[in-house]
Protein backbone atom coordinates (compact mmCIF):
# COMPACT_ATOMS: atom_id res chain seq x y z
CA UNK A 1 0.00 0.00 0.00
CA UNK A 2 0.99 3.62 -0.54
CA UNK A 3 -2.24 5.26 0.66
CA UNK A 4 -3.40 5.09 4.29
CA UNK A 5 -5.90 6.59 6.65
CA UNK A 6 -3.12 7.53 9.08
CA UNK A 7 0.64 7.86 8.82
CA UNK A 8 2.47 7.69 12.16
CA UNK A 9 6.02 9.05 12.13
CA UNK A 10 8.13 7.42 14.83
CA UNK A 11 7.73 4.07 16.60
CA UNK A 12 8.36 5.45 20.06
CA UNK A 13 5.88 5.02 22.89
CA UNK A 14 3.38 7.64 21.71
CA UNK A 15 3.42 6.48 18.11
CA UNK A 16 2.89 2.83 18.98
CA UNK A 17 0.12 3.48 21.49
CA UNK A 18 -1.74 5.59 18.94
CA UNK A 19 -1.16 3.26 15.99
CA UNK A 20 -2.34 0.23 17.98
CA UNK A 21 -5.58 2.00 18.90
CA UNK A 22 -6.16 3.12 15.31
CA UNK A 23 -5.46 -0.30 13.81
CA UNK A 24 -7.73 -1.89 16.41
CA UNK A 25 -10.45 0.56 15.32
CA UNK A 26 -10.15 -0.74 11.75
CA UNK A 27 -8.19 2.13 10.22
CA UNK A 28 -5.33 1.57 7.78
CA UNK A 29 -2.15 2.68 9.55
CA UNK A 30 1.49 2.90 8.55
CA UNK A 31 4.17 3.47 11.20
CA UNK A 32 7.58 4.50 9.89
CA UNK A 33 10.65 4.48 12.13
CA UNK A 34 14.16 5.57 11.14
CA UNK A 35 15.82 3.21 13.65
CA UNK A 36 16.07 -0.55 13.17
CA UNK A 37 14.01 -1.24 16.31
CA UNK A 38 10.85 -0.04 18.02
CA UNK A 39 10.70 1.99 21.21
CA UNK A 40 12.69 5.08 20.29
CA UNK A 41 14.20 6.75 23.36
CA UNK A 42 12.58 4.12 25.61
CA UNK A 43 13.91 1.03 23.85
CA UNK A 44 16.44 -1.65 24.79
CA UNK A 45 19.90 -2.46 23.44
CA UNK A 46 21.72 -5.78 23.79
CA UNK A 47 25.22 -5.39 25.23
CA UNK A 48 27.23 -8.64 25.41
CA UNK A 49 24.10 -10.66 26.14
CA UNK A 50 22.61 -8.14 28.60
CA UNK A 51 19.32 -6.41 27.75
CA UNK A 52 20.12 -2.83 28.66
CA UNK A 53 17.30 -0.30 28.64
CA UNK A 54 17.99 2.91 26.72
CA UNK A 55 15.54 5.11 28.60
CA UNK A 56 12.40 4.11 30.46
CA UNK A 57 13.14 1.20 32.79
CA UNK A 58 9.77 0.66 34.47
CA UNK A 59 6.24 0.36 33.10
CA UNK A 60 3.20 1.42 35.07
CA UNK A 61 0.76 -1.33 36.00
CA UNK A 62 -2.96 -0.77 36.43
CA UNK A 63 -3.09 2.52 34.50
CA UNK A 64 -3.56 3.80 30.98
CA UNK A 65 -0.64 1.75 29.61
CA UNK A 66 -2.09 -1.57 30.71
CA UNK A 67 -5.57 -0.40 29.71
CA UNK A 68 -4.34 0.30 26.16
CA UNK A 69 -2.67 -3.09 25.86
CA UNK A 70 -5.79 -4.89 27.07
CA UNK A 71 -7.99 -2.97 24.61
CA UNK A 72 -5.83 -3.63 21.54
CA UNK A 73 -4.84 -7.19 22.44
CA UNK A 74 -1.14 -6.55 23.09
CA UNK A 75 0.74 -8.81 25.51
CA UNK A 76 1.35 -7.10 28.85
CA UNK A 77 4.09 -9.16 30.47
CA UNK A 78 5.13 -6.83 33.29
CA UNK A 79 6.48 -8.27 36.53
CA UNK A 80 5.89 -6.24 39.67
CA UNK A 81 8.49 -6.08 42.44
CA UNK A 82 7.37 -6.24 46.06
CA UNK A 83 8.05 -3.81 47.55
CA UNK A 84 8.27 -1.72 44.37
CA UNK A 85 10.63 0.85 45.85
CA UNK A 86 12.70 1.46 48.97
CA UNK A 87 14.07 4.84 50.05
CA UNK A 88 17.55 5.01 51.55
CA UNK A 89 17.46 7.46 54.44
CA UNK A 90 20.81 7.53 56.18
CA UNK A 91 21.86 3.91 56.46
CA UNK A 92 18.33 2.49 56.45
CA UNK A 93 16.24 1.38 53.48
CA UNK A 94 12.65 2.39 54.24
CA UNK A 95 9.67 0.51 52.81
CA UNK A 96 6.74 2.94 52.57
CA UNK A 97 4.30 0.41 51.12
CA UNK A 98 0.94 1.12 52.69
CA UNK A 99 2.18 4.17 54.57
CA UNK A 100 3.00 6.44 51.67
CA UNK A 101 4.27 9.95 52.17
CA UNK A 102 3.24 10.14 55.80
CA UNK A 103 5.42 7.21 56.80
CA UNK A 104 8.43 8.42 54.83
CA UNK A 105 8.33 12.06 55.90
CA UNK A 106 7.67 11.23 59.54
CA UNK A 107 10.95 9.30 59.61
CA UNK A 108 12.89 12.22 58.16
CA UNK A 109 11.64 15.51 59.55
CA UNK A 110 9.56 17.14 62.27
CA UNK A 111 8.01 19.17 59.46
CA UNK A 112 6.49 16.06 57.89
CA UNK A 113 2.95 16.88 59.03
CA UNK A 114 3.16 20.39 57.60
CA UNK A 115 4.42 19.12 54.25
CA UNK A 116 1.62 16.56 54.15
CA UNK A 117 -0.83 19.35 54.88
CA UNK A 118 0.50 21.27 51.89
CA UNK A 119 0.18 18.21 49.68
CA UNK A 120 -3.35 17.63 50.95
CA UNK A 121 -4.33 21.23 50.24
CA UNK A 122 -3.26 20.73 46.63
CA UNK A 123 -6.16 18.35 46.12
CA UNK A 124 -8.29 21.45 45.50
CA UNK A 125 -7.51 24.04 42.83
CA UNK A 126 -7.36 26.78 45.47
CA UNK A 127 -4.59 24.90 47.27
CA UNK A 128 -2.26 24.70 44.27
CA UNK A 129 0.64 27.17 44.14
CA UNK A 130 1.25 29.54 41.26
CA UNK A 131 2.95 28.07 38.18
CA UNK A 132 6.07 30.21 38.67
CA UNK A 133 6.90 28.67 42.06
CA UNK A 134 9.33 25.77 41.76
CA UNK A 135 9.00 22.66 43.89
CA UNK A 136 12.22 23.55 45.70
CA UNK A 137 10.82 26.99 46.59
CA UNK A 138 7.52 25.48 47.73
CA UNK A 139 9.30 22.96 49.93
CA UNK A 140 11.50 25.66 51.46
CA UNK A 141 8.37 27.12 53.04
CA UNK A 142 8.10 24.01 55.22
CA UNK A 143 11.63 22.72 55.79
CA UNK A 144 15.32 23.16 55.09
CA UNK A 145 16.01 19.49 55.88
CA UNK A 146 18.43 18.32 53.21
CA UNK A 147 17.19 14.71 53.29
CA UNK A 148 13.62 15.83 52.64
CA UNK A 149 14.78 18.07 49.82
CA UNK A 150 16.84 15.18 48.47
CA UNK A 151 13.86 12.84 48.36
CA UNK A 152 11.73 15.39 46.49
CA UNK A 153 14.60 16.30 44.17
CA UNK A 154 15.27 12.68 43.29
CA UNK A 155 11.59 11.89 42.80
CA UNK A 156 11.43 14.77 40.31
CA UNK A 157 14.42 13.26 38.56
CA UNK A 158 12.89 9.78 38.47
CA UNK A 159 9.49 10.84 37.13
CA UNK A 160 10.04 14.10 35.23
CA UNK A 161 13.79 13.99 34.39
CA UNK A 162 14.44 17.40 35.97
CA UNK A 163 15.47 18.73 39.35
CA UNK A 164 13.11 20.21 41.94
CA UNK A 165 14.51 23.67 41.15
CA UNK A 166 13.35 23.32 37.50
CA UNK A 167 9.88 21.81 37.95
CA UNK A 168 6.83 23.90 38.89
CA UNK A 169 5.50 22.86 42.30
CA UNK A 170 2.03 22.98 40.77
CA UNK A 171 3.01 20.18 38.36
CA UNK A 172 4.47 17.95 41.06
CA UNK A 173 1.53 18.42 43.44
CA UNK A 174 -1.03 17.87 40.70
CA UNK A 175 0.70 14.65 39.71
CA UNK A 176 0.75 13.25 43.22
CA UNK A 177 -2.78 14.26 44.17
CA UNK A 178 -4.66 13.69 40.90
CA UNK A 179 -2.71 11.38 38.64
CA UNK A 180 -1.97 7.71 39.16
CA UNK A 181 1.45 8.67 40.56
CA UNK A 182 3.05 5.35 39.61
CA UNK A 183 1.62 3.44 42.53
CA UNK A 184 2.33 0.15 40.75
CA UNK A 185 5.04 -0.62 38.20
CA UNK A 186 7.33 -3.36 37.02
CA UNK A 187 9.86 -4.63 34.51
CA UNK A 188 9.53 -6.51 31.22
CA UNK A 189 11.68 -9.68 30.93
CA UNK A 190 12.84 -8.65 27.43
CA UNK A 191 13.72 -5.17 28.62
CA UNK A 192 11.33 -2.28 27.96
CA UNK A 193 11.43 -3.03 24.24
CA UNK A 194 9.30 -6.08 25.01
CA UNK A 195 6.26 -3.86 25.54
CA UNK A 196 6.86 -1.98 22.30
CA UNK A 197 7.26 -5.22 20.37
CA UNK A 198 3.95 -6.39 21.77
CA UNK A 199 2.25 -3.19 20.58
CA UNK A 200 3.90 -3.50 17.16
CA UNK A 201 2.60 -7.08 16.92
CA UNK A 202 -0.90 -5.86 17.79
CA UNK A 203 -0.69 -3.24 15.04
CA UNK A 204 0.20 -5.79 12.38
CA UNK A 205 -2.36 -8.30 13.67
CA UNK A 206 -5.05 -5.68 13.08
CA UNK A 207 -3.86 -4.96 9.55
CA UNK A 208 -1.48 -2.07 10.20
CA UNK A 209 2.12 -1.85 9.07
CA UNK A 210 5.34 -1.02 10.90
CA UNK A 211 8.36 -0.18 8.73
CA UNK A 212 11.73 0.08 10.49
CA UNK A 213 14.87 1.70 9.07
CA UNK A 214 12.59 4.09 7.19
CA UNK A 215 13.07 7.82 7.54
CA UNK A 216 10.65 10.56 6.51
CA UNK A 217 12.55 13.26 4.64
CA UNK A 218 9.70 15.74 4.25
CA UNK A 219 5.95 16.22 4.55
CA UNK A 220 3.68 18.05 2.16
CA UNK A 221 0.38 18.88 3.86
CA UNK A 222 -2.91 19.62 2.08
CA UNK A 223 -6.25 20.35 3.81
CA UNK A 224 -7.49 16.76 3.54
CA UNK A 225 -4.37 14.74 2.77
CA UNK A 226 -0.64 14.53 3.25
CA UNK A 227 2.26 13.19 1.22
CA UNK A 228 5.41 11.95 2.93
CA UNK A 229 8.64 11.63 0.98
CA UNK A 230 10.77 8.86 2.44
CA UNK A 231 14.53 8.68 2.59
CA UNK A 232 14.74 6.44 -0.48
CA UNK A 233 12.71 8.92 -2.55
CA UNK A 234 9.45 6.96 -2.50
CA UNK A 235 6.22 8.56 -1.29
CA UNK A 236 3.17 7.55 0.74
CA UNK A 237 -0.07 9.44 1.25
CA UNK A 238 -2.46 9.59 4.18
CA UNK A 239 -5.54 11.50 5.28
CA UNK A 240 -4.01 12.23 8.69
CA UNK A 241 -0.44 12.42 10.01
CA UNK A 242 0.55 11.79 13.63
CA UNK A 243 4.10 12.85 14.42
CA UNK A 244 5.98 11.27 17.30
CA UNK A 245 9.28 13.04 16.62
CA UNK A 246 8.61 16.16 18.68
CA UNK A 247 6.94 19.45 17.66
CA UNK A 248 10.20 21.12 16.60
CA UNK A 249 11.11 18.23 14.30
CA UNK A 250 7.57 18.15 12.94
CA UNK A 251 7.88 21.80 11.93
CA UNK A 252 11.16 21.01 10.16
CA UNK A 253 9.56 18.15 8.22
CA UNK A 254 6.67 20.30 7.00
CA UNK A 255 8.53 23.61 6.68
CA UNK A 256 8.06 26.77 8.72
CA UNK A 257 6.06 28.45 5.94
CA UNK A 258 3.11 26.15 6.69
CA UNK A 259 2.66 27.56 10.21
CA UNK A 260 1.78 30.96 11.61
CA UNK A 261 4.22 33.00 13.66
CA UNK A 262 2.39 32.41 16.96
CA UNK A 263 2.66 28.63 16.61
CA UNK A 264 6.32 28.78 15.64
CA UNK A 265 7.03 30.90 18.70
CA UNK A 266 5.09 28.47 20.92
CA UNK A 267 7.10 25.53 19.55
CA UNK A 268 10.37 27.34 20.21
CA UNK A 269 9.28 28.27 23.75
CA UNK A 270 8.18 24.73 24.60
CA UNK A 271 11.30 23.06 23.19
CA UNK A 272 12.91 22.49 26.62
CA UNK A 273 14.62 19.08 26.50
CA UNK A 274 15.88 17.70 29.80
CA UNK A 275 18.82 15.34 30.36
CA UNK A 276 19.82 12.24 32.30
CA UNK A 277 23.07 10.43 33.07
CA UNK A 278 22.98 6.63 33.36
CA UNK A 279 25.39 3.85 34.22
CA UNK A 280 24.37 0.27 33.41
CA UNK A 281 26.36 -2.35 35.30
CA UNK A 282 26.36 -6.06 36.11
CA UNK A 283 27.85 -8.44 38.65
CA UNK A 284 28.01 -12.13 39.45
CA UNK A 285 27.14 -11.45 43.07
CA UNK A 286 23.98 -9.68 44.22
CA UNK A 287 24.89 -6.06 44.92
CA UNK A 288 21.50 -4.56 45.80
CA UNK A 289 19.22 -6.19 48.33
CA UNK A 290 15.88 -5.17 46.89
CA UNK A 291 13.75 -6.58 44.07
CA UNK A 292 12.87 -3.28 42.39
CA UNK A 293 14.05 0.29 42.81
CA UNK A 294 16.02 2.16 45.45
CA UNK A 295 15.60 5.92 45.85
CA UNK A 296 17.92 8.17 47.81
CA UNK A 297 17.42 10.95 50.33
CA UNK A 298 20.99 12.20 50.10
CA UNK A 299 23.18 12.04 47.03
CA UNK A 300 25.41 14.18 44.90
CA UNK A 301 23.43 13.32 41.77
CA UNK A 302 22.14 9.71 42.07
CA UNK A 303 18.34 9.62 41.83
CA UNK A 304 17.75 5.86 41.89
CA UNK A 305 19.17 2.43 41.27
CA UNK A 306 17.18 -0.50 39.94
CA UNK A 307 17.69 -4.24 40.16
CA UNK A 308 16.30 -6.07 37.12
CA UNK A 309 17.34 -9.66 37.46
CA UNK A 310 15.67 -10.64 40.73
CA UNK A 311 12.39 -10.57 38.76
CA UNK A 312 13.66 -10.80 35.18
CA UNK A 313 16.71 -13.08 35.00
CA UNK A 314 16.15 -13.23 31.23
CA UNK A 315 17.68 -9.75 30.97
CA UNK A 316 21.17 -11.09 31.74
CA UNK A 317 23.28 -14.13 30.85
CA UNK A 318 23.00 -17.03 33.33
CA UNK A 319 24.67 -16.32 36.64
CA UNK A 320 24.72 -12.53 36.19
CA UNK A 321 22.82 -9.68 37.84
CA UNK A 322 21.86 -6.52 35.94
CA UNK A 323 21.48 -3.03 37.46
CA UNK A 324 21.14 0.61 36.50
CA UNK A 325 22.01 3.85 38.30
CA UNK A 326 20.53 7.08 37.02
CA UNK A 327 21.06 10.76 37.78
CA UNK A 328 19.79 14.10 36.57
CA UNK A 329 22.53 16.67 35.93
CA UNK A 330 22.52 20.26 37.16
CA UNK A 331 21.06 21.92 35.30
CA UNK A 332 18.87 19.27 33.72
CA UNK A 333 17.66 21.85 31.18
CA UNK A 334 20.56 23.63 29.54
CA UNK A 335 24.26 23.03 29.19
CA UNK A 336 26.37 21.01 31.61
CA UNK A 337 29.71 19.21 31.78
CA UNK A 338 29.21 15.57 30.77
CA UNK A 339 32.40 14.30 32.39
CA UNK A 340 31.85 16.16 35.67
CA UNK A 341 28.28 14.93 36.01
CA UNK A 342 29.26 11.34 35.25
CA UNK A 343 32.05 11.56 37.85
CA UNK A 344 29.57 12.73 40.51
CA UNK A 345 27.27 9.82 39.69
CA UNK A 346 30.16 7.38 40.09
CA UNK A 347 31.02 8.90 43.47
CA UNK A 348 27.48 8.15 44.64
CA UNK A 349 27.54 4.61 43.24
CA UNK A 350 30.83 3.82 44.98
CA UNK A 351 29.51 5.22 48.24
CA UNK A 352 26.49 2.92 48.20
CA UNK A 353 28.18 -0.15 46.69
CA UNK A 354 31.48 -0.82 48.48
CA UNK A 355 34.32 -1.99 46.23
CA UNK A 356 32.18 -1.24 43.19
CA UNK A 357 35.15 -1.16 40.81
CA UNK A 358 36.20 -4.73 41.65
CA UNK A 359 32.75 -6.25 42.17
CA UNK A 360 30.88 -4.80 39.19
CA UNK A 361 31.30 -4.70 35.44
CA UNK A 362 30.23 -1.46 33.75
CA UNK A 363 28.26 -2.23 30.59
CA UNK A 364 27.59 1.29 29.35
CA UNK A 365 27.55 4.96 30.26
CA UNK A 366 24.73 6.88 28.59
CA UNK A 367 24.03 10.61 28.60
CA UNK A 368 20.66 11.45 27.03
CA UNK A 369 20.30 15.13 26.18
CA UNK A 370 19.65 17.76 23.47
CA UNK A 371 18.16 16.08 20.37
CA UNK A 372 17.83 12.70 22.16
CA UNK A 373 16.49 13.63 25.61
CA UNK A 374 14.55 11.67 28.23
CA UNK A 375 11.76 14.30 27.93
CA UNK A 376 11.35 16.75 25.04
CA UNK A 377 9.54 19.27 27.24
CA UNK A 378 9.59 19.89 30.98
CA UNK A 379 6.23 18.88 32.44
CA UNK A 380 3.98 21.93 32.67
CA UNK A 381 5.47 23.56 29.57
CA UNK A 382 4.08 21.20 26.93
CA UNK A 383 2.30 22.19 23.76
CA UNK A 384 -1.12 20.74 22.98
CA UNK A 385 -1.12 17.89 20.43
CA UNK A 386 -3.04 19.94 17.85
CA UNK A 387 -1.22 21.99 15.22
CA UNK A 388 -2.64 24.78 13.03
CA UNK A 389 -2.97 22.15 10.27
CA UNK A 390 -6.26 20.25 10.80
CA UNK A 391 -4.91 16.84 9.79
CA UNK A 392 -1.56 17.01 11.64
CA UNK A 393 -1.15 16.14 15.31
CA UNK A 394 1.86 15.67 17.56
CA UNK A 395 2.30 12.76 19.96
CA UNK A 396 4.76 11.88 22.72
CA UNK A 397 6.50 13.61 25.59
CA UNK A 398 6.55 17.07 24.02
CA UNK A 399 2.75 17.34 24.14
CA UNK A 400 1.92 15.63 27.44
CA UNK A 401 -1.24 16.33 29.34
CA UNK A 402 -0.60 18.66 32.26
CA UNK A 403 1.40 17.17 35.15
CA UNK A 404 2.16 13.80 33.63
CA UNK A 405 5.41 12.20 32.57
CA UNK A 406 7.17 9.29 30.92
CA UNK A 407 5.59 6.54 28.86
CA UNK A 408 2.37 6.83 30.88
CA UNK A 409 1.93 10.37 29.58
CA UNK A 410 2.52 9.11 26.03
CA UNK A 411 -0.24 6.52 26.43
CA UNK A 412 -2.63 9.13 27.82
CA UNK A 413 -2.03 11.62 25.00
CA UNK A 414 -2.28 8.88 22.38
CA UNK A 415 -5.76 7.93 23.59
CA UNK A 416 -6.93 11.54 23.45
CA UNK A 417 -5.48 12.16 19.98
CA UNK A 418 -6.88 8.92 18.54
CA UNK A 419 -10.38 9.84 19.68
CA UNK A 420 -10.11 13.13 17.77
CA UNK A 421 -8.58 11.49 14.71
CA UNK A 422 -11.35 8.91 14.51
CA UNK A 423 -13.91 11.70 14.66
CA UNK A 424 -12.17 13.47 11.78
CA UNK A 425 -11.91 10.32 9.68
CA UNK A 426 -15.60 9.60 10.22
CA UNK A 427 -16.69 13.06 9.08
Describe the 3D structure:
By secondary structure, the protein is α/β, with parallel strands linked by helices. The chain folds into three domains: 3-78 and 190-272 and 377-426, FAD/NAD(P)-binding domain; 97-178, no CATH class; 274-368, Alpha-Beta Complex (Polyamine Oxidase, Chain A, domain 2), CATH 3.90.660.50. It has 13 helices and 18 strands. It has helices at residues 13-24, 64-72, 100-106, 112-121, 135-140, 146-160, 169-178, 193-205, 247-254, 261-270, 338-352, 356-359, 406-426; strands spanning 3-9, 29-32, 44-47, 50-53, 59-60, 85-89, 92-95, 185-186, 209-211, 216-222, 225-230, 235-243, 276-283, 293-296, 302-307, 321-327, 361-368, 392-394. The strands form four sheets. Strands 1, 2, 9, 10, 11, 12 and 18 form a seven-stranded mixed beta sheet that branches. α1 (13-24) runs parallel beside α2 (64-72), α1 (13-24) runs parallel beside α13 and α3 (100-106) packs antiparallel against α4. The chain starts with a strand and ends with a helix. The model has no long low-confidence stretch (mean pLDDT 95). This is Amine oxidase domain-containing protein. It comes from Sporichthya brevicatena.
Structure keywords:
single chain; FAD/NAD(P)-binding domain; Polyamine Oxidase, Chain A, domain 2; 3 domains; seven-stranded mixed sheet; 13 helices; 33% helix; globular; FAD/NAD-bd_sf; Amine oxidase domain-containing protein
Quick recap:
The protein is an alpha/beta fold and 427 residues long. Helices cover 33% and strands 22% of the residues.
Strand content: 15-25%
- Total strand count, please? 18
The CATH class of the largest domain, by name, is Alpha Beta
- Rough outline: globular
Q: Overall pLDDT, averaged? A: 95
Rg estimate, integer Å: 22 Å
> CATH superfamily of the largest domain, please?
FAD/NAD(P)-binding domain
CATH fold field value of the largest domain? FAD/NAD(P)-binding domain
Q: What is the helix tally?
A: 13
Helical residue percent? 25-40%
Coarse structural class:
alpha/beta
Tell me about the largest β-sheet: 7 strands, mixed
User: How many domains make up the 3D coordinates?
Assistant: 3
Amino acid sequence: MTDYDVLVIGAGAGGLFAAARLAHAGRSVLVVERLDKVGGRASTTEVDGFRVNDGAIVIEVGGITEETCREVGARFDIREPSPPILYRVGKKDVDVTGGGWGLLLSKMSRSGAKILGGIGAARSDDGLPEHELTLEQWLNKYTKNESVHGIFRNMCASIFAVGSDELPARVFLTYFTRKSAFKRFGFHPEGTIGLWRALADAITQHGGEVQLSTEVASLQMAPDSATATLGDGSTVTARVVLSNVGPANTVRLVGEDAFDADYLMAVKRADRPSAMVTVNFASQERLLKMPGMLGFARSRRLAYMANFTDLCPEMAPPGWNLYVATAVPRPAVGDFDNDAELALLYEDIREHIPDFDTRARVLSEVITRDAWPPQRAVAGFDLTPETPLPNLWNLGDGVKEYANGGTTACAETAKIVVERVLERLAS
